[in-house]
């Protein structure tokens, strides 16, 4: 066992590799159990969150315990056929998502400040 963990420690993973996978193009009727059947083959799963709002249907987040299992699943399940749909498996990139949100929020705050203090760019 020590040998294996030693070997893993020396493997350099690409920076985008993440324990959280973002899955798109899922059949709307897929169940959490079916998700565990498909993704659980690649390693221990911490949680699966299926999108259930109108704009998140057909998507899910799969969180693995181990980043190597997540990479293995991503490598093998991209393009996997489920009920005639081909899965799109991506690494969740929190920084990108949050940076975008953050920018929007900062922009709105700036607008509010300008309004509050009557600062106008047009002058």
From TrEMBL:
Keywords of the record: Coiled coil, mRNA processing, mRNA splicing, Nucleus, RNA-binding
UniProt protein name: RRM domain-containing protein
Main location: nucleus
Gene3D superfamilies linked to this entry: 3.30.70.330
Subcellular location: Nucleus
Superkingdom to which the source organism belongs: Eukaryota
One term under GO cellular component: nucleus
Domain RRM: 19-94
Keyword Acyltransferase: no
Molecular function as annotated in GO: RNA binding
PROSITE patterns in the cross-refs: RRM
Organism field: Nematostella vectensis (Starlet sea anemone)
One Pfam family cited in the UniProt record for this chain: RRM_1
The keyword Calcium is assigned to this record: no
CDD domains on file: RRM_SF3B14
Coiled-coil stretches: 96-123
GO biological process: mRNA processing; RNA splicing
């Amino acid at each position: 066992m020590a040998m294996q963990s030693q070997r893993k420690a020396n493997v350099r993973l690409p920076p985008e590799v993440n324990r959280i996978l973002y899955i798109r193009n899922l059949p709307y009727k897929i169940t959490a159990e079916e998700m565990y059947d498909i993704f659980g083959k690649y390693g221990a799963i911490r949680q699966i969150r299926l999108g259930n709002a109108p704009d998140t249907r057909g998507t899910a987040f799969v969180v693995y315990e181990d980043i190597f299992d997540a990479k293995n699943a991503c490598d093998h399940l991209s393009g996997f056929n489920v009920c005639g749909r081909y899965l799109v498996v991506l690494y969740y990139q929190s920084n990108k998502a949050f940076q975008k949100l953050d920018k929007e929020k900062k922009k709105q705050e700036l607008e509010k400040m300008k309004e509050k203090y009557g600062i106008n760019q047009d002058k």
